[in-house]
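Re: your question from the hallway

Yes, I did run it. Sequences:
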Amino acid sequence: MNIEVDARGQACPKPVIMTKKELDNIEKGTITTIVDNEVAKENVSKLASSLGYEYKVDKGSDDEYYIHINKGEIQEVNVCIPDTFKDMTIVFASNTMGKGSEELGKILIKSFIYTIVETIPYPSTLVFYNGGVHLTCEGSEVLEDLKKLEQEGVEILSCGTCLDFFKIKDKLQVGEITNMYTIYEKLKNPTNTVTIE
Amino acid sequence: MIDRQFGVITFKSTHHAIKAESVFKNENIEFRTIPTPREVTYSCGLAIKFDLKDTELARNIVEENQLDIGGFFKVIKAGKESKAEKLN
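Structure:
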């Protein structure tokens, strides 16, 4: 069985999504995805290798790549994480979201964290500093969500200096205590960091 | 990880949602304030999520406190598909 996915003219990440969908639909067999650019070719190939499937690329012409992906019988369970999320960091600089009303800000941040839990794939790291550390400590209304994320492999980091400042170091309920060096390492990829303040 | 089915109360304004949250906090019911699921169209952005087994309890709380709500909905998630039905 050979299924063809024509993803020419589709913007990223559409070719990957289309391919994944077809792969999910079949028990085994070969899927051939056709794309019209190098980046899409790379992304679809990465999808195949991240799922542990064999694949082969044929170049038709300058704007035609055929990626043949073979879904075999024995598969390792492997979750596909698009690259853009693999090292995504979300920073919580405060325990509220936005400025204008603290009451509203607290509700918004709860909503935001709930939405992270509901949306796959997950980011790799959540960093909490300044007032943000209240979210990882006793009394926070998002502890359950953060614990869930931690169980799913999301790294949860709270700034030690900040916990210390607010005298809540012993109240930390989820994740690890970190320092500015690690925080900088997590934030230094600006295309993949989102700051909530 | 994701509840397959749950109840949602929507509101016509954010202020009503915030007020409802403070009322619910004083009641013996498990709930969460969540962003209104996309499937539930007409409402403000915040909603109260509750366990469907507590539907009657939630209704009572709304009635007793005369909360101004948009409606009660049931959200059903199946895989990546998700839909909402109005609860009457």
